[in-house]
Structure formats: structure tokens, C-alpha cells
Fold this sequence. Notes:
Layout: H1 4-69, H2 71-78, H3 84-104, E1 108-114, E2 119-122, H4 130-143, H5 147-154, E3 158-162, E4 165-174, E5 177-184, H6 185-189, E6 202-206, H7 233-237, E7 241-246, E8 253-258, H8 261-290, H9 292-307, H10 324-365, H11 368-383, H12 387-406, E9 412-413, H13 414-432, E10 436-442, E11 450-451, H14 455-466, E12 474-485, E13 488-497, H15 504-512, H16 524-536, E14 541-546, E15 550-557
Parallel strand pairs: 10-12
Antiparallel strand pairs: 1-2, 1-5, 3-4, 4-5, 6-8, 7-8, 9-11, 12-13, 13-15, 14-15
Helix pairs in contact: 1-8, 2-3, 8-9, 10-16, 11-12, 12-13, 13-14
Amino acid sequence: MYSIKHYVRILLWISFIALVVDFAISFSSIALVRQQSSRYLQDTADLYIDRIDNNFAYIHHFMGWTLANDENMETMSERSADDPLFLKANDNIYKRFAELQKSHGKEYNFFVYLKNKDFLLNVAPMTLSYPQFEALKRTVNEDVGSAEIYRKYYSRWTTIDLNGTYYMINIVPYHDRYLIGLVSADELIRPLRDINLGGGGFAALVNEDGIRVTSPVSNDGKSIRDPEKPDSLLDRLQPGTTVVREFSDASFYIELVIRFGAFEKIMIAQLLVVVLAVLIASNLCFILLYFQKRVLKPIKTFSNNLAILTNEGEPIDFENNKIIELEKANRQFVDLVKQIRDIKIDLYERELEKQRMHLNYMKLQIKPHFFLNCLTTIYSMAQMQLHEEIERMTLSISKYFRYIFQNDRDFVSLLDEIEHVRTYLDIQRERYRDAFHYRVDLDPLAADVQLPPLLIQTFVENAMKYAVSRDREVRLTIEVGRHIQGAASVTEIRISDTGPGFPGDVLEKLAAGQPLDQSGGTRIGIMNAVQRLNYLYADADIRFRNADGASVTILLPDRPEAKIGTEERP
């Protein structure tokens, strides 16, 4: 047995050590978060720069090849501006660069300058105002024909000020004609502003003179008066982490500043809580000295009993406790432990289910056989010199994989999903020719309905796999409508085909809601779709049946936060 002073000294030492350890952990955590944030920003900036570098290189090569090899450019250079041949050539060049703009983004502007005519015109839809267009023309007039244009504009993309707005410009000369690529600095940096850089963080493009050429806007959309001078004292105590990355063929570079002030404020608040706890513990020591005989001994007994657990992890019950409040607290503690255990088990099972569904979803996205089949089809078309078919096939595949790889949302609009399914069916029609026909009926009121991505495509792919063959023609129908069920609006999606239908054993299991055998790597898509619907919706309904082929009907209730079109929609 020791005196109460002995325990008081131990409690004070423990409080002091806990305070020191918490200080060390807090500052280490802040340093670790900053380090991880910096690494994350570096990786993100590298990916962004690789994409922009590829865009810049491809556009530069495209403009150079067009100047040197496209007969339309020769025609425009030789003919007058009102000549029909000039207008036709200009129209052909416009179409080419409009397609290039669709592939790389509408923020890119393209112009052609004919020196012998002192004539500048756009060859794709442009976003410049007329004063900016005039400023561009003046700049081109000043630099064409000199060695400055090769050093400054041809070999790399550089910055240019057009009436107070900065643009990135690349000029490709060829004899007396020039092609110009132009993109707004703010539009170029826009994807990086979607990254969470903290309330005071920002992304900027900086030219070779160290001037920020983008608008001073923080990550949360607020204007920054001077990025080098934080507004608050806390911001000065929490300097941002800066990441700088350079482009390959450009005179400007990226500057990313991250300020996760919220996390650091939480850590500081935690330190204050610990300091307050130490103060309370100190006061408690004096109280314990005063109430030693009446309070300390039962509290110590209560604390020791709480620390004792049975072999099964259950807290033991108190017996013959002289303080009724402690006995009640024990009963509540026992119930609380049981509830926490049940909650932990439930959360654990839900997390496992969520991870398994996510894995299946990722498996559903990875389709190397489909990709290889598409490449084989394009190769066959190339051997037969089917150039138009190759163009359609390539464009459809590009749209297909852009939707697959760039869609990281939990929900998409039904219109986007239908357009993706059309793209997929157009690709398959290039392969199967007249083996199948499809029809899509979409109620305009259902266009804005939100649903999980690739939901409809899953069942369309199943129909293509099991219903379509080269022996007979198959009809595939997708019908989407809106109607009232009970007191709520429901979206009904029906996918049907005229194929052989579901096998009897499979249809029986689907109708009964039983899982299908996926051991051979098959039917993953259908089961994944069913599980996703059950996970995301409380009252979604999916029905399988055979009627002149396979038929799948999905009934989706409206999400509470979604805004679906009503009778006001045209």
C-alpha cells in the first residue's frame, strides 16, 4: 500500500509524459501529412504535365504536317479570299481542326496566317473576343518573317498577353503561311484547380520571367490578393507546401501550393484538449487528496474492475459495490461494449462487401478481349482499305474507352449511359454487320435520371454475348420510360432481345434472387449489377424473364438529392 501522495505524483508524471508524447505525435503527424501531400501533388502534376506535353507535341506535329502536306493550305495561299476554291479549302481545313479541337478540348484555338495576303482567320471555333483577336494579329504581324518567331514561338509553347489575358501560343511557319495554336492559361490550369489544395491553396502557371499568368484564384474559388502574403496569422504559422514542375516544350511551368490548414487546426485543438486534460488532472489530484476517504477508494475499485475482462472479452459484473452510481455505470458499460461489438461486426461486414463489389466493378471495366477484338477488326478493315469504316470504328472506340476510363463517379445521367451504349453497339455492328439490329426508345423526361455507370451496358453486353450470332438476325431493344408507382416517380428500363433467352437454371436463380455460379469467371457482370443496385437503392427492383428471348426490366426510384426533369422539359 502507498499513500495518496504517491499516486498523485504518478498521475502528474503520467499527465506530463502524455502531454509531451502528444506534442511529438501531433507535430510528426503534421510533418507526415505535408510530406504525403507534397508527394501526391508531385505525382498529380507529373500526370498533368505528361498529358499536356502529349497534347502540345501532337498539336505541333499536326500543324506542321498540315502546312507541309495538305493541298488545301496550298490552295488558300495561292487563291484570293473570295475565290470559291479558297472558301472550299478553308472549309476543309476548318473541319480538320474542329475535329482536333474535339479531341483535345474546346479551349484550344487554331488560326492560319497568310503573309502574302496579311490575312489572319480562325480554322476552328474560337473563344477569343474581337479585341483579343486584333491583339493576336498585331503580334503575328510584328514577329513573322523574323528569326524571333523560330526562337520564341516555333520550338516551344510560350506565353502571350492579349489585352490583359494570358494565352499559351505556338506558331508553326512554312514559307509564307503560318498555323497558330492558342490556349488560355486559365483554361489550361483548370483541371488542377479541381484538386483539393486546402482553403488557401492554389494552382498557377508561371512564365519564364516568374510572373503568374493565371488568375489569382484559390482552390475553393476565392480571389487571392497576394499569394505570398497569407491573410491570417494562422496561415502565416502554417506555410504551404509548394510543388514546381516544368513542361518539356514550353517556356512556362506549374506552381502548386497546398495549405491543409484544417488538419493542422485539428491537431492544435487536440493539443489544447490534452493541455486542458493535464490541468484537470492536476486539479483532480488536489481533489483526491481532500476526498481520499470518501471517493478515491471506490473509484479506484471501479477503475480496476473496468480493466478486468473475462477470457471471452466480456467485462465482469460488480458485486457488493457501495456506490450505486458506479454499479449503474457498470451495467451501462456492459451494454455499451456489446453494442460496440455488434456495430464493429456490422461495419466490418459492410466494408468487406463494399470492397468485393468494387473489385467486381473493376473487373467488369477491364475487358482486354473486347479491346483486342476491336483492334483485330480495324486491322481487317485496313487490309480491305475501308477507310471510312476505320474512321467510324476508331472514333467509336475512342468514345467508348474515354467513358470507361474517365468515369469515376458513383452516378451518371441516363442520357450519358444511353449514348455510351449506342457507341458500344455501333462498335459491335462494325464487327457483326447485319447479324443484329438495335432500337433505343428514351423518354425525354428520363434523360437526367441518375443511375450507376455501366448498368445498362452490363445487360446489353450479356445480350451480345449470348443472343447475337452470325446464323440469324437478332433484334435488341432498349426502352426507357417514366411513370408513377404508388406515390413516387419511377424510371423503368427494359433491355430485351430475340435470342435464345436465359437458360432455365439461370433464370430460376435470378428470379429467386439467388447468386449465380461465378467460379469460371462468368456472369460477374450480372451479379455485380444486381449487388450494386441492392447496395445503392433500398427499393430498386430488377426482373428477369424469357419472352421471345431474354428480357431484363429495371425499376429505379429517384434519388432524393437528384433533380429529374418534369413536364417543363421540352
